[in-house]
Amino acid sequence: MAAAGYVLAAGGIAAANEIIFTSGGVKEFNWRLIPATGILALVLTGFEKMSPQFGSALGGLVLFMVLITPMGNAPPPIENIANMFGKQ
Question: Is the pTM of this model over 0.70?
Answer without folding.
Answer: yes
